[in-house]
């Protein structure tokens, strides 16, 4: 068989058959054809297997695009047809022959496999299909429905998570759209007439005087259809928006409660409004609620505002009186900015974020010593002063701010030390809020200063923790070294003991030697005395 | 069913069909009052014998044969089963044994000629599966051809198995008579078995020479109606 030229050609075999080598028989083959490798048979030897294999593969590769059949192969090979078929199937299974040559057999196999796959898929739990109302789902289930159905089932102790059906999710939408005339059955247009018992007729029927049997024209009230009413409701007043935001903060994504507190709007409106709001996504993510709203909305805005105010203030002189004017001006600037709608929302979040930021600062500050907080605050203020001129004036003018911060920090950290906990801190933070406006420093600056203070405090805390960790490590290393030394000492002591034992043994052996020597001398002496001849004596000694 | 392979070549095998499934080929050829019924099928000898009569009745009913056939069919099957069972429990052969199987049969319009080797120790062998692949590879559409081929293989294997039992008995007898005086080669167990050493020995290749390929190539012919009629007439004459 000539394999040399086939090596030069390129054949595609599946990657799973990489084991195949012309010159060797792989373990896979050995396992598949055990009877060829136990050496018990004349007609089944590794050599014969290899000849079968090589012939079949070569035969296929003479014309790789054509499908090789078993019947074609067996006429050229001597051997048990059952086994030949087994080998043929093996090679086909591994793609060494008939790889990529589709045939009716292959198609059938594929179909079978596909069917098996389908079955397998069905066996697996189709998790994607299950729609359960999880706490985070946008549309929570209406709770009364569940409790009712649960009660009807009758004391089933196992409470399954409610399944959201189509009508649960889209029920509101469907109801609003399907308003048909109670008389003619047509769909009501943009308007319809409604009685107090919710009987609805379309405008056509109303105009033509067709009121039905029970009602008169006075019973009907003109009401706009759902589409219009939705549009109408979608106009949000500022008060409503504020109410929505507050209730979202309070109730999270429990839209039933949110809608209840907004009152004038329904659930859907609340959700869509909140999504429309630029920061709505941030509010929804509960984990990010505080931090990201601070970092994403609070800080950049403070920068903008500070810069704008400072640029405004560059021209003005630096006297005390004018500084107070400056604050007024900046407040006016703030008012002016409030008039543009997008900024207004940002300011709303800013005040919100600043208060929560104060909470954070208060929390962080309490974890370190008061004087560290004070130093951090000082550093923060001075850094802010370096950044631009305006704050310096403000801080210079109201230079008791830093000390005020310090005193505050120290006071509430002291309280925290007394163990009164979070509520006290909050009250002290609200103290800050209350007092700071009196001081008259712009909110933005306060926020920045507080942020810097918090960062400083956190850094200090980290330093402290690192130091503590260092000490801990040192201590542990010292312990380890001590233990090692103790171990060594024990070993030395043990060796000493061993040496002592050895010495004793040595002494004993020496003694034994001596006694044996004397004994021998004694024996010799006695033999001499008894007068044994010399040659006998010699042989005795020798032996 | 499956014996460990390593032990196969040493120990004699008890009589059975040398295939995966122990199915006995049964051939029926019964003529009553000018009506002739010919059939061939396999029977599982471990089925209860009461099934035979049930089968016979059913066949007669399905083929609308005269009721006289029932007993004839049942008797024929029964006697063939008895013959098969008479060999059971006896030693068949020891050692390797590969036999040539020759096919030469006509099913309706299809003529099949083929020959190949069959290992009697390979109890994974499956004539029905072999026939199925044969028909698929040779594009034989007639659904009756496959079973006919399988049956032909089984019939030959059955024949060889019976021969083996007989010769194994004889060799045992001769060994008893002249203790160890004469060495009887294993391959002599059946007259038809191929010479393993010659075919599979270290000097020979299991790949046939190209000129031999035609000899072992299966031949499938589709006959015309006239040819079939002529052949059937000839067979009829031979039967008489």
Automatic annotation (TrEMBL), chain A:
Gene Ontology cellular-component terms listed: nucleus
Polar residues compositional bias, start-end: 294-314, 324-335
Entry GO MF terms: DNA binding
Segments for region (Disordered): 294-349
InterPro entries named in the record: Homeodomain-like_sf, SANT/Myb, SANT_dom, SMARCC_C, SWIRM, WH-like_DNA-bd_sf
Keyword Ribosomal protein on entry: no
Every SWIRM domain range: 11-108
Keywords: Developmental protein, DNA-binding, Nucleus, Transcription, Transcription regulation
Pfam family, one: Myb_DNA-binding
SMART domains documented for this protein: SANT
Domain SANT: 231-282
Protein name: SWI/SNF complex subunit SWI3A
Organism: Psophocarpus tetragonolobus (Winged bean)
Automatic annotation (TrEMBL), chain B:
GO terms (BP aspect): chromatin remodeling
Keyword Transcription: yes
Entry superkingdom: Eukaryota
One Pfam family recorded for the sequence: SNF5
Keywords, alphabetical: Nucleus, Transcription, Transcription regulation
Annotated TM spans: none
GO CC terms of this entry: nuclear chromosome
Subcellular location: Nucleus
Family: Belongs to the SNF5 family.
Protein name per UniProt: Bushy growth protein
Annotated organism of origin: Psophocarpus tetragonolobus (Winged bean)
